[in-house]
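Dear H.,

Thanks for agreeing to be a second pair of eyes. The structure we're designing against is below in token form, covering all 464 positions.
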């Protein structure tokens, strides 16, 4: 067997740019599906690795390691599909839409929706769960109020990702703290200095955007027809909201996501039997294939005919390929070589913060998964942050601002694909309106170069 050669900086950068180029040309110019483009990227990575001396077994093992690290996220895809199917079938999502159309107006919808999604995500710690439940209902309310779907989706994602980044119940929040070897609450405290201003900017922006729809866009008859179609299809009562209440309560009690979501599915199915006059076969079919119904309003059909395990298979297969690619790029050392090359040019603390944020974004794009990017950042920048005297919570902050927030605005990542499939809006369409997701990383970089909210270790040797 030929000896293995560590990839050079030039080879690593060339491979990465080639993969990104394949994705850009294929998606935007050839309009080819992302799956086949990622397979081409995996094939190219395997061929380059073979030239470096790796065997096919070693390459496949590296790909498998990438998939294994993202397996929990992929299983949650399945659970989210079950939740959506069950909660639509039992009337929970339709009820939120029905009541929301009574409460919200075109002017207040976007800022209040942002706050509602933010509170939900902070309470549950999951952006996916927030988008798949409250977020899906917001899409229906926005449609009834005349707000374009990409704008509503951007608002939902901004609020959903706030909790994913800041909640102590969030897996990415905990993972970023662990990867940087810092205390969880010191990590959250460090993020507040950039996240709160970014959130307020987004809130003001959504308030201004909402004013655009305050006159003329509100169609009373359209809202009435949507509510009428929902009332005809479902038994609308506050009782159908119990599955949502249960999942939020379990999350606050720090019950893990998987049993919490399964409990929500079980209660939703039970309410389908008791309140929606459904048979057991219909309730189970909704979990597998999603809700299927025909109302008198096309918009209601488009919104509610979704969910179920099978609806997640497109996203599941995309995640599988993306994680395989990420595993190969990580295990063979391509990404670490690129970061080492970058670190050799960085001299200042501000430059290091910028590099950490950008590397996390690049990690998302290359590996298709925020978890892998978070782990990689913590491993690669640990010593560099200590060398310039920055606290470890600064590393965890930069990692979350680059990884957690941007993963939903990259089309081929697991989160980007999930949000697009769940909300029914292409990633590129909602990207400009996912305000928090790009304002926060940008503001973080600007503040670091201004020397604002930069926290250094004390002389006592504090590191976290």
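And this is the sequence the design step returned. I haven't edited it by hand at all.
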């Amino acid at each position: 067997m030929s000896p293995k050669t560590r990839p050079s900086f030039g080879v690593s950068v060339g491979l990465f740019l080639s993969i990104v180029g394949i994705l850009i040309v294929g998606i935007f110019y050839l309009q080819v599906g992302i799956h086949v483009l990622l397979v081409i990227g995996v094939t190219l990575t395997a061929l380059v690795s073979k030239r470096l001396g790796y065997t096919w077994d070693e390459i496949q093992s590296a790909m498998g390691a990438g998939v294994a690290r993202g397996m929990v996220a992929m299983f949650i895809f399945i659970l989210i599909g079950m939740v959506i199917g069950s909660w639509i079938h039992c009337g929970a999502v339709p009820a939120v839409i029905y009541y929301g159309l009574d409460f919200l107006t075109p002017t207040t919808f976007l800022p209040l929706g942002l706050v509602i999604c933010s509170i939900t995500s902070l309470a549950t710690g999951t952006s996916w769960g927030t988008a798949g439940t409250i977020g899906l209902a917001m899409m229906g309310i926005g449609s009834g109020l005349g707000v374009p779907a990409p704008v509503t989706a951007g608002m939902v994602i901004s609020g959903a990702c706030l909790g994913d980044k800041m909640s102590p119940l969030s897996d990415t929040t905990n993972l970023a703290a662990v990867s940087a070897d810092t205390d969880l609450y010191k990590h959250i405290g460090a993020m507040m200095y950039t996240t709160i201003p970014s959130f307020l900017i987004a809130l003001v922006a959504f308030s201004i955007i909402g004013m655009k729809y305050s006159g003329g866009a509100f169609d009373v008859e359209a809202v009435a027809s949507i509510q009428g179609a929902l009332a005809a299809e479902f038994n609308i009562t506050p009782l159908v909201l119990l599955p949502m209440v249960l999942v939020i309560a379990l999350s606050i009690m720090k019950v893990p996501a998987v049993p919490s979501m399964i409990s929500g599915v079980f209660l939703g199915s039970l309410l389908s039997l008791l309140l929606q006059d459904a048979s057991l076969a219909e309730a189970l079919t909704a979990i597998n294939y999603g809700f299927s119904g025909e109302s008198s309003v096309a918009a209601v059909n488009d919104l509610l005919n979704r969910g179920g395990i099978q609806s997640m298979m497109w996203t599941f297969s995309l995640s599988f390929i993306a994680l395989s690619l990420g595993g190969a790029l990580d295990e063979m050392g391509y990404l670490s070589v690129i970061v080492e090359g970058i670190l050799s040019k960085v001299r200042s603390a501000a430059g290091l913060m910028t590099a950490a944020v950008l590397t996390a974004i690049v990690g998302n794009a290359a590996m298709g998964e925020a978890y892998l990017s978070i782990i990689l950042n913590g491993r690669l920048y640990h010593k560099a942050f200590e060398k310039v005297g920055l606290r470890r919570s600064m590393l965890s902050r930069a990692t979350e601002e680059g990884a957690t927030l941007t993963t939903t605005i990259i089309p081929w990542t697991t989160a980007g694909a999930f949000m697009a499939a769940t909300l029914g809006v292409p990633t590129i369409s909602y990207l400009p309106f996912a305000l928090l997701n790009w304002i926060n990383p940008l503001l973080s970089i600007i503040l670091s170069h201004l020397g604002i909210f930069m926290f250094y270790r004390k002389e006592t040797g504090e590191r976290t």
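Two observations from my side: The chain has a mean pLDDT of 84. The chain has two domains: 21-70+315-450, 72-172+184-312.

Warmly,
E.
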